[in-house]
Amino acid sequence: MTDRHSAYVVVLEHDMREDDAEQTLSALRQIRGVLSVEPIVSNLEQHIAENRATHAMRVKLYEFIKEWKP
What we know:
The structure is a single chain. By secondary structure, the protein is mostly helical. Helix content is 46%, strand content 0%. 0% of the residues are buried.
């Protein structure tokens, strides 16, 4: 049985200013299967949970709108 990956942590060589990091963030967002790319300032587990909950809510809302008939 193989392990399942839930996220990756990218460690930068040195701290980057927010405006200088935009190209790096943009490149990471273009990778297939990436749900979100945001700088992590606080707890990693909380960040992952919030992003997954937001994504799940968007999917359900999209499905509701797609099936809704006025």
